[in-house]
């Protein structure tokens, strides 16, 4: 028998204020497909542009200001009585930002008498793939699991093995900056604004079209190490020194920015692809699955496709609109957590966990 579960979800862990309503269609308890009723995102990117990254106190203020409107838009035209529960990001993320979402949901729990389901943001980035995967849960399990999963964004770079939905083994993570943070910091050094990923990627594409040798060598931190950890702060420092020298000699020309953008993108992608490939091979994964803001990167997607072809395994990445922070993915994770019995009836039991781990 078919059952429909309606989920309202809220996300405020970083610099995007988001709310969404999704419906999960299940047969015999198994997810067949998700349908998205609304997916509202209010980005604070322009507010943080001057800081070259997310400024927590400012982000919190913006979440508080924007969340009521984002919520209103998300529920407009939907019969709220039909909402079964509320999915909410508990962590990892910036604690003041997480609390804004949690407090808002606590209020909703009181007013609307709905239970809540806390969600891990990193897990949600990977489960975002289920928003559009044809064949739903059975397809994922049969064709893609176990999978080497790479959640890669402005705040996280986490490599883990998914044995089943909700059954994860952490393989490695960044020891300092996240990959997206590295894109953002390099963009700041080059004077390109925030967020850095899309603009670096565009400059890199232009340099590639020139088919020239840049003569610039940047490091690929930890690429040769046998562990699955990452480190990106040294790469950013290398760019800082190189560009300082460049500025004093000739100024940062358009061509220099293109060449450096290309080299940095290659370095980041090389490290991400090489470590994920090694994990997939070592753990006999049937697929590589990626998610998170950086998963929108064309070069990363292209290289992951090549590697998975070589290994004879599958590759899965969400459509670009579901790579960056959104609340629909929080709804997906909430659906599976709820099925495991993770549901809170009392608002006071809902808390943040800024360092929430995947395992
Ligand atoms: O997932 P997300 O929206 O927020 C976090 O959870 O952090 O990711 C945002 C990050 C930013 O660092 C941004 O520069 C990066 O994703 N990003 C990209 C691209 N689009 C966004 N990085 C590389 N290439 C892109 N096309
Ligand atoms: Zn994220």
Task: Give descriptors for this structure.
five-stranded mixed β-sheet; globular; single chain; binds 5'-O-[(R)-(carboxyoxy)(hydroxy)phosphoryl]adenosine; alpha/beta; 43% helix; 359 residues
Protein model, in words:
It is globular, with a radius of gyration of 21 Å. A hairpin with a 4-residue loop joins strand 6 and strand 7 (157-164). The chain has helices spanning 45-48, 56-75, 95-112, 121-127, 136-144, 179-189, 196-210, 233-249, 254-282, 298-311, 328-339, and strands spanning 2-11, 16-27, 30-43, 85-91, 116-120, 147-152, 157-164, 167-173, 287-291, 314-316. With 359 residues, the protein is of the alpha/beta class. Bound molecules: 5'-O-[(R)-(carboxyoxy)(hydroxy)phosphoryl]adenosine and zinc ion. 5'-O-[(R)-(carboxyoxy)(hydroxy)phosphoryl]adenosine binds next to helix 6 and helix 7. Residues 14, 153-155, 180-181, 183-184, 195-198, 201, 292-294, 296-297, 324-325 line the site of 5'-O-[(R)-(carboxyoxy)(hydroxy)phosphoryl]adenosine.
């Amino acid at each position: 028998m078919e059952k429909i579960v309606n989920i309202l979800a809220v996300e405020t862990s970083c610099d995007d204020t988001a709310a969404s309503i999704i419906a999960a269609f299940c047969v015999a308890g198994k997810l067949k497909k998700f349908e998205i009723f609304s997916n509202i995102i209010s980005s604070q990117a322009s507010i943080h542009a001057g800081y070259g990254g997310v400024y927590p106190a400012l982000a919190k203020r913006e979440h508080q200001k924007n969340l009521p409107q984002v919520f209103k838009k998300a529920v407009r035209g939907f019969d709220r009585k039909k909402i079964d529960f509320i999915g909410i990001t508990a962590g990892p993320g910036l604690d003041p930002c997480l609390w804004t979402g949690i407090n808002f949901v606590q209020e909703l729990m009181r007013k609307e008498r709905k239970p809540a389901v806390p969600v891990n943001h990193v897990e949600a980035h990977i489960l975002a793939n289920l928003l559009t995967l044809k064949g739903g849960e059975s397809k994922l399990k049969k064709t893609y699991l176990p999978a080497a999963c790479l959640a890669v964004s402005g705040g996280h770079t986490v490599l883990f093995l998914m044995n089943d939905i909700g059954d994860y083994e952490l393989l490695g993570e960044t020891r300092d900056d996240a990959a997206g943070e590295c894109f953002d910091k390099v963009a700041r050094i080059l004077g390109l604004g925030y967020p850095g990923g899309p603009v670096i990627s565009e400059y890199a594409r232009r340099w590639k079209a020139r088919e020239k040798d840049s003569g610039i060598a940047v490091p690929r931190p930890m690429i040769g190490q046998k562990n699955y950890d990452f480190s990106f702060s040294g790469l950013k420092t290398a760019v800082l020194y190189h560009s300082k020298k460049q500025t004093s000699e000739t100024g940062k020309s358009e061509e220099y920015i293109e060449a450096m953008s290309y080299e940095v993108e290659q370095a980041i992608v090389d490290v991400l692809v090489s470590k994920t490939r090694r994990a997939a091979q070592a753990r006999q994964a049937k697929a590589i699955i990626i998610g998170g803001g950086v998963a929108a990167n064309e070069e990363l997607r292209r290289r992951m496709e090549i590697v998975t072809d070589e290994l004879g395994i599958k590759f899965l990445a969400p459509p670009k609109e579901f790579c960056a922070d959104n609340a629909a993915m929080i709804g997906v994770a909430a659906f599976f957590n709820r099925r495991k019995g993770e549901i809170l009836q009392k608002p006071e039991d809902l808390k943040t966990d800024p360092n929430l781990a995947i395992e």
